[in-house]
Each structure stands twice: as C-alpha cells, then as structure tokens.
C-alpha cells in the first residue's frame, strides 16, 4: 500500500467528499526533466490496470506490467515512445464553494450543488485548504511512469494507450557484464537494457529469520533480515533467456514478483506481506467465495529435465526458476504458508488511491481476508477501484 506521509492528505483521500485532478508530466530523455505538463481540464478520464497473469492462485516469479488509458481533452497528441509520469492530486471540496464564473463565495459545498457542475467546470475550481502553507493540490500521488504505445483521435479528444517499461520484458537478454555475477548485478544489467532507471533494494519482507520473528540486536533493537536473496549466476545460466525469464527467476528465489513501483523503479514485491483494513462503507456489494485459500505446496520447473516440489501438490503454486534448489523452495513455502485469502471481487466506489497489487486486507474484521491480484482504477474527477482476489468464486 502506497504510504502518504501526511495525516491531512491521508484523511482527505479517504473522505466522502473528495474529487481528484490528474496530472501528466511528459519527460525528456534523461527521465527527469519535465518538458510538458497536462492537468485539470486537459484530462477527462484515466484507467489504470495492474494484474498478475495467474488467475487461480497467487503468483510467484511473475514480472507484472501496468497499463494506462488516458483521454486528453486539449487537442495535444503525444507521440509513440513519449514517456510520462502520472499523478493524481486532490481538489478540496470540503472547503469554501466558489462559483466558477464569478469566483464569488457561495458557501459550503453540498452534494446537490456538486452534481450541477460538469467535470470540466469542477476541474477549474481552486483548492482552498492549505497544509503547512502549501496548497492541497501540490501533494501529488504517483501512479507510475509510462511509455506511449498508441494515440488515437476520438472526436475532439485523444485516447492514449501506454504501458510501463516492463512491456518490453519478453526481449532476449543481451548481457553487458562479466560472469559469474551476482543476481543483483544481473538484475541491474537487465534494467539497463530495458531503459528502467534503477531498482529499489528490498530491505524487509516475508523472509524474516527465526520463524517470522524479528532478530534482536545487542541493544534489543529489532533487525529485519533482507528479503532479497542474492546468489551467483553463471554465463551459461542466462544463455537464451528473455529479460522476463531472468527477472522472474531472480524474483522467484525470494518468493516474490518483479514490478515497477509508482515512481518507475524496479522492485520485488511479496504478496500479502502486510495486512490492511478495507473501509466497508466505500464499497458496493462484493462477490466473495466461501472457501479460504492457502499456499500449501510449491512446484518449481527448473528445466525440462528437473522439477522440484514441496508440500501438498494438489493445491501447489507452480512457477519456473532455473536457479531454484530444494532447500530454497522449502524455505519459500515456509515463509508464504501463513498467507490465506478468499476469492473475491470488490468494487470500491470511493477508490482508495493507496492500494497496490499484492496488498492483503480484512473485509470486516474476522469475516475474511483478500489479496489484491488484479487492480483497476478509474478516474473521471472521482476515483473508483475494482480489486480482484484470485481463485474460483465457489459458494457452499
């Protein structure tokens, strides 16, 4: 779950009377310099999709790309290959209601007043709430960095389809480093080939020593052991592999999946690592299965000649990894076996912009837990979220 380090912003994004604006920063070749910005009434609609490729169970060793579809309303047509960062930010509707035409103060917002405005009119309204002297609209919530793959004119608008830079992950890996090399060095070399600016070192996660309990140092400080499993890779181990094979295999050795974070940097994430609570007042009637799911077994295809297994094979999660060992597979099962979830689909009409793929949450305490294995955001001034927890929706 994305962390917003400001209490006022956190409260605002989950309030019942909030409206967002979208912002696109088109970036120069250095990936940092902003060449053009679109925001407010320039953008009519945004859809963001992020999902694992497995639908029956949680995934291990996946490389998971985001997709964005954006409706641009000011006539600008981006080129194929253009790169942009996507943000949402808040329009404060809890503050003073100002008439768009006269800018006269007309009192506090009501729901009835809000429904009389078009999206374009709402997008021009100024924010009124400050946070430590900074307007609320200056707090941007990142939603990824994307490359334009298609831009099509639809009437007076332009529909843009874009993917993050993992879209090219099926290319054959072309090493530029000397072997043998560490898995970290190989990861960075793959990211170089894909044009991804960097990686986020994994410092905490599921793989905590001593039976998932923190190790205590001499001053009784909790020490979380790194979840990133580093190992040595030989040149022949990557021959003929795609970038997906390499990144997915390295992520599998830690029991996780590779993806880009909201700022466009590569990281390995772990399904259901931390449990959150879902606000049931923001969702419509969910579809929930009656049978809890767990990771009770693993099957790893090492090569055409070798397959490793552990645990119950009737419900085993299957994945590929050319470097897996039996000892490592046993360890991963031990670390993931505590996770349980219920197959479900939740539509959150007041979408929480902090949800990420792999998040685990309670749906009403004690009823069931769910893991987000497919996530879809839709923005049109408001923000909704549809979250799918994998598995078959069996009802008994």
What does it look like?
The chain is built from 7 helices and 30 strands. It has about 400 residues and is mainly β. The chain has one domain. Strands 2-1-6-11-12-5-3-29-30-26-20 form an 11-stranded antiparallel β-sheet. Strands 4-17-18 form a 3-stranded mixed β-sheet. Strands 19-27-28 form a 3-stranded mixed β-sheet, with no helix packed on it. A hairpin with a 6-residue loop joins strand 7 (about 95-100) and strand 8. Helix 4 (about 185-195) packs antiparallel against helix 6. The chain is globular, with a radius of gyration of 23 Å.
Topology readout:
Layout lengths: L6 H7 L4 E10 L6 E6 L3 E9 L11 E2 L1 E7 L10 E10 L3 E3 L6 E4 L2 H4 L4 H5 L6 E2 L2 E2 L5 E14 L2 E7 L17 E2 H12 L14 H4 L2 E2 L5 E2 L8 E2 L9 H10 L4 E4 L5 E4 L5 E3 L9 E2 L4 E2 L2 E5 L5 E5 L5 E4 L5 H11 L3 E2 L2 E5 L11 E4 L4 E4 L2 E6 L3 E7 L7
Parallel strand pairs: 4-17, 19-27, 22-24
Antiparallel strand pairs: 1-2, 1-6, 3-5, 3-29, 5-12, 6-11, 7-8, 9-10, 11-12, 13-16, 14-15, 17-18, 20-26, 21-25, 22-23, 26-30, 27-28, 29-30
Helix pairs in contact: 4-6
Briefly note the structural class of the backbone. mainly beta
Task: Tell me the distance between the termini.
Answer: 32 Å
Q: Mind telling me the C-alpha Rg?
A: 23 Å
Give the rounded overall mean pLDDT: 82
The domain tally reads 1
Largest sheet: 11 strands, antiparallel
* Percent strand: 35-45%
- The shape, in one word, is globular
* Tally of alpha and pi helices: 7
The strand count comes to 30
- Strand order in the largest sheet: 2-1-6-11-12-5-3-29-30-26-20
Helix content: 10-25%
User: Low-confidence segments, ≥5 residues, pLDDT <50?
Assistant: 94-119, 126-134, 203-218, 221-226
């Amino acid at each position: 779950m994305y962390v917003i380090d400001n209490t006022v912003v956190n409260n605002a994004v989950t309030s019942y009377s909030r409206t967002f604006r979208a912002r696109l920063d088109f970036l120069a070749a250095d990936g940092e310099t902003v060449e053009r910005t679109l925001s407010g009434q320039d953008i009519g609609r945004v859809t963001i999709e992020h999902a694992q490729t497995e639908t029956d169970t949680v995934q291990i060793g996946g490389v998971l790309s985001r997709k964005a579809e954006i409706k641009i309303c000011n006539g600008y047509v981006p080129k194929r290959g253009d790169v942009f960062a996507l943000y949402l930010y808040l329009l404060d509707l809890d503050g003073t209601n100002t008439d768009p035409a006269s800018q006269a103060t007309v009192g506090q917002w009501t729901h009835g007043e809000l429904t009389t405005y078009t999206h374009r009119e709402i997008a021009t309204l100024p924010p009124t709430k400050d946070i430590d002297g900074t307007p609320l609209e200056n707090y941007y919530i990142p939603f990824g960095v994307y490359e334009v793959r298609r831009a099509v004119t639809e009437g007076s608008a332009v529909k843009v389809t874009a993917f993050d830079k993992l879209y090219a992950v099926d290319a054959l890996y072309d090493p530029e480093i000397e072997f043998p090399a560490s898995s970290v060095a190989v990861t960075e070399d793959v990211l170089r080939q894909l044009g991804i600016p960097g990686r986020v070192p994994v410092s905490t996660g599921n793989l905590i020593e001593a039976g998932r309990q923190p190790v205590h140092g001499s001053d009784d400080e909790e020490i979380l052991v790194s979840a990133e499993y580093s190992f040595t890779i030989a040149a022949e181990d990557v021959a003929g592999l795609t970038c997906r094979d390499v990144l997915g295999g390295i992520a599998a050795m830690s029991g996780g999946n590779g993806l880009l974070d909201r700022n466009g940097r590569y990281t390995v994430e772990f399904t259901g690592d931390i449990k959150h609570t879902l606000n049931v007042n923001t969702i419509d009637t969910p579809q929930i299965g009656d049978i809890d799911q767990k990771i009770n077994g693993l099957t790893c295809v090492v090569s055409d000649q070798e397959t490793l297994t552990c645990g119950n094979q009737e419900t085993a999660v299957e994945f590929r990894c050319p470097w897996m060992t039996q000892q490592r597979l046993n360890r991963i099962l031990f670390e993931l076996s505590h996770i349980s979830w219920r197959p479900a689909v939740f539509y959150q009409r007041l979408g929480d912009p902090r949800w990420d793929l792999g998040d685990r949450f309670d749906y009403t305490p004690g009823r069931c837990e769910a893991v987000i294995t497919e996530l879809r955001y839709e923005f049109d001034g408001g923000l909704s979220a549809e979250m799918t927890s994998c598995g078959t929706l069996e009802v008994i």
